[in-house]
Amino acid sequence: MSAPLRRLRETPRHLLVCERSHVRHERSRHAARVRGHAYNCRVSFLIPECGVLPEPLKSVTTDMGEYYLVKNLPLHELVAQEFISAFVKTGSCYALSYNTRIDQDNTAALLPTDCHSPLKHIGKLILSVDKDTYEELGLQGRPSRYSGKKIMRYIITIDLTDSAFHSDSKKYKRVLWALRDKKPLEFDFLLSWHHTGADGSTLMSYFSKHQIQAHQPKITFSTLRNLQCPVLCSNELQGKPEESCSAQELFEWLGAVFSNVELDNKSFSFVSTYCCPEPSTMMDQAYLCTITGFILPEKIIQLLDQLCAYFDDPKLAQWVTLTVHGFADSPVSWRENEHGFQKGGENLYNFVVFRSLDYWLQMAVGANDDCPP
Amino acid sequence: MLTGLSFNFTLRLYSSRNENMSQSSLYNQNAKLGYSTVAINHVIDFKEKKQEIPKPISPSELLPSLPIIPGKLKPIKIVTRLTLVVSDPSHCNVLRATSSNIRLYDIIAVFPKTEKLFHVACTNLDVDLICISVTEKLPFYFRRPPVNMAIDRGIYFEVLYTPAIKDSTMRRYTISNALSLVQICKGKNVIISSAAERPLELRGPYDVANLGLLFGLSESDAKAAVSTNCRAILLHGETRKTACGVVYTMKKPQPVEEEEETLPACKRAKTQV
After folding, report:
1. What is the CATH number of the domain that holds B104?
2. Which run of H or of E encompasses B112?
3. How many domains does chain B divide into?
4. Mind listing the pLDDT tens digit for each residue in B123-160?
5. Which partner from A3, A105, A234, A323 sits 20 to 30 angstroms from B118, CA to CA?
6. Are residues A222 and A249 in the same domain?
7. CB proximity B7 to A under 8 Å
8. In this predicted complex, what is the ipTM?
9. Are residues A15 and A140 part of one domain?
10. Are residues A9 and A111 in the same domain?
């Protein structure tokens, strides 16, 4: 009888990894972490004591790049040699199936970077399929790590830029046969392509036969007034009592701010009893900007650089934060770590950049996830 | 963050009346909550005099078009289910009859009222689900041997949650009965379903999985109770139409008569199904 009660008191498994470094440090891994998290659906930044956004930041936020939504795209089109040579090998091509749930449907994703050589352009097609589809498809994969005793989910990884994956190889023929003839799979895809250099053909023209639409990320700006915010000390990740708050308290406070929760624990409020962690200061205003869409890591790195450049001129703010949420239904979280959806599919990271260009990086995942790197 | 509450499998509806208006709102609510398969339940209580088992209603008769689950592009799937409330061993004979309409249902469930019938249901009867009473104190205790035999045969136990929404006494009975079941079966082969007659009595799949924690299931068992176990029940029901679950027969469409006459009798196909 006591086992269920004990279980009720425990919260579902979740992980929060906090690390601290300096932006200009030669071994700082902030760019690698951002590049490792391929699929981002929401980016928000909060600048305390700021009423108007400076021009360089505004131009970066409005130029977050466009993404495309293709409906009913057969999966074998992503394995076609023309697609690979036109987009996968010449730039970073990101694709994620849209409107599919990771815990019940088949999901497909195209990852552009290799964990070992981040500058080389490669393409890995990752399929997360259920048991019936796996048995009908005929490609080799491994069981999902979060499947339990009865395996219900399999992950298939196909390296598209492998030297053995050219038109005459047996491997290519098998993959094409499985995806085109044996079990044709079709998804709606969110696509984006980052490339440097000459333009050549674009995704819009390549997929003109299918229903492709270009979308711009949605941007909202708001100014928060009279906000209580915690005092932070860049050297103390754990916080010192009476002097500064810890990284976990900041994380919770940030979540409360993004959810528009009242922070003063009024006695008549039924929604929340959350208070701002002590010690705290009262800010007159803070600038909050949220960008929603299919956002590429390369754009996030540009935004992060601009936020660091915000402190080039003397400012009232002690720190700024940049929060990036990943898709709840993507098959991977960081690099090729598998991502699952137990009761929530959160995989997000948060940068806190201080005036001295020290930064805190917090990476959080939910229940069915590997530990972030 | 994408927050789609769309989910995998079943939810049981309890309706033996044909009120089309309320039913379409039930299906819409199901699709909105994110269930992808719904089972319509017909309850046959043998205590009343001589009940004939009706043919199952086909889903296309109920609704002209099935509601589409938001966040996906597929419509909801509707299957049919029959529940037999048995309080006497002679009531089980209908399951062995080959000519009745029982074969047309996708899932067959039995609701035993006595310990002997529970034992018979776990060991002998050809059913997919055994319902556990949640509205009254359990008339008998569960014992491990028949429950383990049922698990080996692929039979699942069903706990309802809608009576718990309606009344606080039934809430106590639901929790205590479910706890004793889960203690004996160790969390395996349990599903949680609703017996909703109105859209307000439905709850989302993740909420129902959380309710499973209260019944003593672990996190993964509770989620399986709403998803993979239900899929297993549907497959178990399908094997009743096959030979031992291995061979599946389908009627071949009859060839047109005129083509056959041109061939001499000896050359006509020997097997004519």
Report:
1. 3.20.20.140
2. strand B107-112
3. 1
4. 988 889 999 988 888 888 999 999 999 999 999 999 98
5. A3
6. yes
7. yes
8. 0.81
9. no
10. no
